[in-house]
Amino acid sequence: MEKKKKIIDIEINKEYCKACLFCIDSCPKQCLIMGTELNSTGFTSPVFVNQGNCTGCAICSLLCPDMAIQVFEILN
After folding, report:
1. d(CA 21, CA 1)
2. Around Cβ 21, how many Cβ atoms within 10 Å?
3. Which of 6, 55, 68, 74 could covalently link to 16 via disulfide, CB atoms 3.0 to 4.6 Å apart?
4. Alpha-carbon torsion angle 31, 32, 37, 40, nearest 10
5. With contact defined as beta carbons under 8 Å apart, do 47 and 33 qualify?
6. CA angle, 48 as apex, 45 and 53 as ends, to 5°?
7. How far apart are CA 39 and CA 24, in angstroms?
């Protein structure tokens, strides 16, 4: 039986984000960086990078005070 590979995807709702940096500062694998695109209230939001390094720990999502981040596990 072939073992399925776990792929992590992170969705960031840019309109909810207030650029607090909690997610970026807390990521143990540095999978998030601050983007440059502004949302409708003038804040920038993080961008998911280094997808292959992400473990899916969801610390970013748990610490986000605005609930702007969702972490998904996709079986490939």
Report:
1. 42
2. 11
3. 68
4. 130
5. yes
6. 150
7. 18
CA 35/CA 43 separation, integer angstroms: 10
What tens digit of pLDDT does each residue of 45-74 get? 999 998 999 999 999 999 999 999 999 998
Torsion of CA 18, 23, 25, 27, to 10 degrees: -170
Query: Would you state the structure tokens that stand for residue 53, as one six-digit string?
Result: 């390094």
Do 10 and 58 meet the contact criterion of CB atoms below 8 Å apart? no
Predicted structure pTM score: 0.87
